[in-house]
Design brief:
Length: 305
């Protein structure tokens, strides 16, 4: 358990909170005994005011401390600072990575050449020379996995490209950890892309059904349509023998391809006497998402081979 001196602001806040709680209990006890609560008000007010004042002062000091360049570089050591354009930030004497690495678990002294992974390889999705190498690539991969770029396909693919150039010089354990984080981002990207495709396909199916129903009604052969499934991917068409016969006659010629393009997986034609069901082989939302991400090679899991 950390010493109380490690966080004096927290100790003071706890003390004020306890003072306020005592004031509340005193007021409740006074009410229960039908006594005036005026005596408890100063105690309660002092505790609440002290708690808020200390919280504000502590937050201000922490913000000012985090804004200090020296504090920021010391907190990030021995990691390499990466600027917005992907280049390495200039190093200052106070952030010499060669000195800090010698005494940290992530430094070269803790990971000699025998701990590197020269036999591993990562297939990058973006070609071209890497923007970062070595430990800087590992740092960038960690940053991408922690901020909003985790759902940016090109940012993740760029991190994978840079990481592919670092596997020969960096410890295998650190590379595998970075790959694991980027793989989590890749799964998020596929899920977001699949969800977007799903929404568009559902809207397209519903619009097609409304258009078809209006057309059949105008032709004097109305039909009843029932959409089923969580994404309205299954459709049942019902109506008179004439109306269903007309649609069934169009199925092999043009209707089947049209329904497959919309992502319907099943269609049933039903009249007053019988019904006929057809299953359609269409790619799923995730498969379509993987196809769109294939140029960046994010359609398959990121692995260290």
């Amino acid at each position: 358990m950390p010493a109380l001196a490690d966080d004096p602001w927290g100790v003071a806040m706890w003390g004020c909170a306890a003072l306020a709680v005592v004031g509340v209990l005193w007021a409740l006890l006074s009410l229960a005994m039908r006594q005036p609560v005026r005596a408890a008000r100063p105690l309660l007010g002092l505790g609440a005011f002290g708690y808020l004042a200390i919280a504000a002062a502590s937050a201000a000091l922490r913000v000012s401390a985090s804004a200090s360049p020296v504090a920021a570089t010391e907190a990030a050591a021995p990691a390499v600072q990466v600027s917005a354009d992907g280049a390495s930030a200039p190093k200052t004497p106070s952030t010499d990575t060669s000195a800090s690495d010698a005494g940290t678990p992530g430094g070269d002294a803790a990971h000699p050449d025998t701990g590197a992974s020269p036999a591993t390889a990562i297939d990058p999705g973006i070609t071209g020379p890497p923007q970062r190498t070595g430990r800087e690539a590992l740092r960038f991969a960690s940053l991408v996995a922690k901020d909003e770029r985790c759902t940016d396909a090109r940012a993740v693919a760029g991190a994978v490209r840079d990481l592919a150039a670092a596997v020969a010089s960096e410890p295998a354990a650190r590379v595998e950890k970075a790959v694991e984080r980027l793989e989590g981002c890749r799964k998020k990207i596929v899920w977001v892309k699949a969800a977007s495709i799903r929404r568009k396909r559902v809207l397209a199916r519903e619009a097609w059904v409304d258009s078809m129903k209006a057309r059949m009604k105008a032709e004097g052969t109305p039909v009843f349509v029932s959409l089923r499934g969580a994404a309205h991917e299954r459709m049942r068409l019902g109506g008179s023998a004439q109306a269903i016969g007309k649609l069934r006659g169009q199925y092999d010629a043009t209707l089947k391809a049209e329904l497959e393009g919309l992502g319907f997986t099943e269609v049933t034609f039903a009249n007053t006497k019988d019904s006929e069901r057809f299953e359609l082989a269409v790619p799923s939302d995730h498969q379509l998402a993987a196809r769109e991400l294939a140029p960046l090679k994010l359609d398959t899991p990121i692995r260290v081979e």
